[in-house]
Specification:
This protein has three domains: 102 residues, Nucleotidyltransferase, domain 5; 92 residues; 115 residues, no CATH class. It is 56% helix and 13% strand. The chain is built from 14 helices and seven strands. The chain starts with a strand and ends in a 6-residue tail after the last helix. The strands form two sheets. The protein has a five-stranded mixed beta sheet with strand order 3-2-1-4-5. The protein has a two-stranded antiparallel ribbon with strand order 6-7. The protein is of the alpha/beta class and 342 residues long. The longest helix is centred in the middle third of the chain and has 34 residues. It is globular.
Amino acid sequence: MKSHVGVDLHQRFCYLTAVGARGEFLKQGQVVNEAAALRTWLRTVPGPRQVVVEASGFWPAFARAVAPEADRLVMVHPQRVKAIASAKLKNDRVDSETLAHLSRCDLLPEAWMADEQTQQLRLLVRLRISLGQQRARAKNHLQAVLHQEGFRKPVTDVFGKRGRVWLKELQLSAAGRVAVETWLAEVDHLDAQIALRTRELEELAKQDARARCLMTVPGIGAYSAMVILAEVGAMERFKNKRALASYAGLTPVVRESAGKRKRGGIGRQGSATLRWILLQVAQVAARHSPAAKAWYSRLRARKPAQVARIALAHKLLTAVWALLRNGVCFDEKIFAGGLDVS
């Protein structure tokens, strides 16, 4: 008889509950997140063992730790678990019991577990994204110092050659000068790191046939192609293009009651990173691709700019789905005509 182990996972420890096939409690307790301790605990539970854990940022380390003792490891969607089994009392014990019983009743809302290659690519891609965000914050801090000191920049890019000459000649206070030089040094350091990480991703894109195909889509370069591949993972896990669009959070919320149907804004669930990069891609495509610009302009004539941009991002994602799932190449004539590329 199979044993079902629910795990409420935290950064330093986890709470485990093991139940039998008939719902009887086998074992329960808190264990530190160390491979030896976790394996020792699981060995005392009769096999075969199905271990269930909610998706979190550090599930890969937990999966590697328990793999030798778990006959099957299942990762579940946290929000869907709450929808299935809501409880007034919520603590580590209750959460782990809920997962164990959902496993026993075969009601688990399973989430996709990225393979090792996808995990490694995500680490590289998200590092590059994080560096860009840190650089933006450093630049904003420097701009704030200039505002505080009462200066308005006479150039578009204060971090370019002309801007740096202007910064050097400013009559700042002693503290203001220290702050400006510190933030400039931080920006320069991050520029170097970003350039290095970007080159690495470009080299990976050259070696990946999928990335080379994606780069035929308007607005998608080597960097954005690798971000898309990292966030999407295995395209086979999406049964259709609507499922992929939903994962990207680019589908509208639909509310229906008493025969009335209303469409709202986008859901903003799923991968925020994938949604962000697609909106960036759409912005570039609308400016530089004749096909995308024509399609965007037609929609922009009757919709707000942000709505049209989201719609273009959705359409570009459809092209990505068709390309990666069915091997369909991008065709600008079909795209501009508003026909389905899939």
